[in-house]
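In the lab's daily routine, each protein ends up as an entry in a very long ledger. A line of letters takes care of the sequence, but it says nothing directly about the fold. The three-dimensional part falls to structure tokens, numbers that each stand for a local backbone shape. The outcome of that step, for a single protein, is printed below.
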Amino acid sequence: MEQNGESRLKEPLLPASSGASPAGASPRKERKTRKVMFSVRGISCASCAVSIETVVAGLKGVESIQVSPLQGQAVVQYRPEETDTRTIKEAIEELNFEVDELQEQEIAVCRLRIKGMACTSCSESVERALQMVPGVKKAAVGLALEEAKVHYDPNITSRDLIIEAVEDAGFGADLISSGDDVNKVHLKLEGLNSPEDTKLIQTVLETTEGVNHVEWDTVEQTIKVAYDPDITGPRLLIQCIQNAAQPPKCFNATLHSPPKQREAERNHEIRNYRNQFLWSCLFSVPVFLFSMVLPMISPYGDWLSYRICNNMTIGMLLRWLLCSPVQFIVGWRFYIGAYHALKRGYSNMDVLVALGTNAAYFYSVYIVLKALTSSSFEGQDFFETSAMLVSFILLGKYLEVVAKGKTSDALSKLTELAPETACLLSFDKDGNTISETEISTQLLQRNDVIKIVPGTKVPVDGVVIKGQSHVNESMITGEARPIAKKPGDRVIGGTVNDNGCIIVKATHVGSETALSQIVQLVEAAQLARAPVQKLADKISRFFVPTVVVAAFLTWLGWFIPGQFHLYPKHWIPKAMDSFELALQFGISVLVVACPCALGLATPTAVMVATGKGASQGVLIKGGNALEKAHKIKAIIFDKTGTLTVGKPSVVQTKIFSKIPLLELCDLAAGAEVNSEHPLSKAIVEHTKKLREQYGSHSDHMMESRDFEVHPGAGVSANVEGKLVLVGNKRLMQEFEVELSPEVEAYMSETEELARTCILVAIDKIICGALAVSDPLKPEAGRVISYLKSMGISSIMVTGDNWATAKSIAKEVGISQVFAEIDPVGKAEKIKDMQMQGLTVAMVGDGINDSPALAAADVGMAIGAGTDVAIEAADIVLMKSSLEDVITAIDLSRKTLSRIRLNYVWALGYNVLGMPVAAGVLFPFTGIRLPPWLAGACMAASSVSVVCSSLLLQLYKKPLHVEDAPRPTDGTDLV
């Protein structure tokens, strides 16, 4: 999100994830183009990059090329049937550049819904299974999100093989999305009567320009079409289908909304656990009554003691019959889970449950058979232990799934912000409105013109072309104050139009909208595993085997002394012997310890925190960034656009020769018009206003040649046959331009006023200077002061001159300043501080900040900045407000505290519960933990951890700058 204005309207907020289309149902060629990346040495300036782009773009078969001078890389998209990488490489080498690396980028991406994961060992098992698939480059599995993101080579493997690998590991897998799902529409078809009709529509769609992929669902009679929004859209696709019918046939296509898979599956899982629990209770409650309650109530329970055959009683038989369905039908899921776990060489909760319940059940069966065949044998069965254990574990899983569903509430609320319908306007040739049609938001296409009346939501991202209003953007940015919108200003999908009618031209639709990309980014963050999770992963690897060994030793520790009468006989409860007492202690140890709570401690907290952060206007790109942010000890701030508003304007001009002011500004603007720097835009805007004052209303700038950017210094260009230099003192020194005492004096005077002095030299003679002022952000001073109270030092690093930098720093309260630093120098400063053992954050907004954002431990990009900066950053501050720097750090600290507390909950149950279950307190107090109660404790541990994470939903920002004045230049910051 950037400041209001019409610039970069076609650029998305966040870079779309790359990935080739995987194999699908469509016979259409999937990858019509290929991407190759070159490492190019010798790129010294922007003109080098332009020359490479010009030559390579002219080659037959090359569709696009992007050259990064800072990274020394060139990325080329080409058609393999028309050219190859060797030809492209040779073309670059002919320009006297060295091409060091040649790397094909053949990576596809797919997301899978994983079913049946219960703990960290489950997610690790899925991850290992995926990584063992040939062709899989990278796989990330999120336990709390129940998803996997897989990067793979489509030439080696396919989605089907990846899903098969997950299923072989004992888990379910469904495809959520793939690389071709960036822009897609689902359509329901009517009027198709034969396979020929189906083939006709498929052929028509595949030959339609802009269609990338077509996939049929013959059962539902629906079709999914992936398309390029720059070329086509949903309404054009529907029209193509309707036009394909030859009379008397009539094809009809309407929007089809597939059920929300995540919600549907979660509801199904909740229902499944609930039903299993109820079925278990149906049998377990009578077993509990027949074994623990009725025998205590005479004469009502006396009938249970009647002998059927030898010493086998009615009670024994009923308990056996009622317990068996619980053990083998309701509890079958634990057998399946244990089998798949042991088959792949790891252990999980299912192994513990299966061992515990089987020990209780089959020992009880032995007791019943012994009683059936003997008239003198007396023994106590444990059928209630097995049945109650399964019931309590299912109750715990049910409560856990319900609680886990709450952890994604913030994200689900974001996805529901966009309205369902929009008012589409149609125009005649003269631009007059001829109709207003209410259509589904999903049918909107780029460049559509829509009407938004007061009180309604903005359906998609766009730019206001008519009308004025105030828009409440709090739902996305967390900023409660309505923001004024006028023609030329941007609006965001999902925000609310408060008080005026505005006409908006759609610029981003579907998955390109800011709202969709926020959701995608947060989902990706929730898949990423935080470093603190490694502790749980290490523990979980040996946790279950350790518990099994501990349970066996507990049984031995009670059985052997019992056999040799090493403890008093009255310790053994009535109707038990020493073996049965030892067995109960062993089973209790087995079931009280569960790795589930430990595995859920980190991912659930990260999931809630990233969702909460997004709703507050802070996008955190994963658990790694979230964890590192709490360690920050120093923050480096860029000046322009970060500490300042980022809308500089020329406030004073000075002429040092006889050249007319308008001509000087025209030449300067001609040189600067190709630059994206905020100072360049200020000069161009000043020139336009100056022309209006002189009676000229032309927006055309003088043409320039040999344009070159000098990072941290300025620009040079040949304008109207003259060498024009526009920049600071360093640029003039590079070109050996003499600075007179008058120029030096004016520069000092300007810089003392916290203004940037831009010198303009024509043919190496300084002819004038422009003083540019960029007002400070109103919250800057309070943020720096608050950071100091948090024990974090603030440093300013800027490419601007020393005098201006010091003046700005003094105003906001920053004591350490580095000025006249180029982009590479900023990254070097960060590395120097990291060498001192500091965790360093960088806050910036421009392309020149991207190396520093990448070098920092935590990069924070201002949301109004460039896409390059946003891509390089770990955290995106959507509102462009500095107070969110504090929000990000504070949220990180609160989340890490919550994760530690979760570990205390998870490990606390085991540290305290296992000794109690093993009977440590029994000799002294007579207190023991029956297996069914141990199962209830195990279930409670997982639920308590998830509920603990959910408390992060109550998080509030530590700093609110409520009364700060808005910028006075008429612009509003998002």
About this structure: Residues 649 and 685 are 8 Å apart (CA to CA).
